[in-house]
Amino acid sequence: MSEATPVQRPRFGASMDIRYADEVASFAGFLRRFDLNHVELRAGYLDVQPGERDAERLRAVAEEFDVSYTVHGPHLDVAPGNINERLRNAAVAATKEAIELAAAIDAGGVIVHGGSVRTRYPDHVREHTREQAVRTLRECAEFAAEVGVPVCLENQRDKPGTRRHTATPDRLAAFLDDVGVGDEFLKLTLDVGHAKATGVDYERFVERFGDRIQVAHLHDNDGTEDAHEPLPSFRSVAADIDAPYNVLEMKSRADVERCVSGTDA
């Protein structure tokens, strides 16, 4: 059984977006220029850069640049609450693959989504979809406990016509209760941009879930869409959250630089 590397103080870094063509080593070196020491690997990035998935190579990069890792599980075209059981099982299998990689590289957690359902569907379909999503998260969290690395359920943003199962503190709490896995291996990712785009103050999540928050995703928007803009105040926001891992979720290296330089344009 692999155990996640203990964190002595908060780590700050950035996410490897699917848009990036960098190697992980190059990105780690870029972050170290700004005194950032954490890399979040995204399943989408690894899917289009399969050569970067090698655990031995990733461990060598972590040692060379003194960075830690988290892994964002698959979410592009993935529906945890898929009503088709074969497709739901595929989502579980893909997430377990990300969990196995995380365990192999001593990552601090695997970020997962709780899914959503169209509001236009009738009640029985919405209920079934949510039950499917709960089953998916339960299976993934139980597997995470087996290998010794937590999954970190993320608050997603509501969109017109779509109800996210984790968009508000109340919905997130009810979802966690239904999954029914303890907080040692089912932790949380607080995405402040998602909260803002939903119209929820991120501090409400902090007040509700506190120490269960393992990862903070830090980016900004105008409150109407999930734009993933720079957040120059990210360190003060991170201090409010007090998570072990703090991740800038930007669309470009330039946006990461804007964050650390304290400018938003």
From TrEMBL:
One Pfam family from the record: AP_endonuc_2
Molecular function via GO: endonuclease activity
Occurrences of domain Xylose isomerase-like TIM barrel (ranges): 46-231
Lineage: Archaea, Methanobacteriati, Methanobacteriota, Stenosarchaea group, Halobacteria
PANTHER family: HYDROXYPYRUVATE ISOMERASE (PTHR12110)
Alphabetized InterPro entries for the sequence: IolE/XylAMocC-like, Xyl_isomerase-like_sf, Xyl_isomerase-like_TIM-brl
Keywords, alphabetical: Endonuclease, Hydrolase, Nuclease
Designated name of the protein: AP endonuclease, family 2
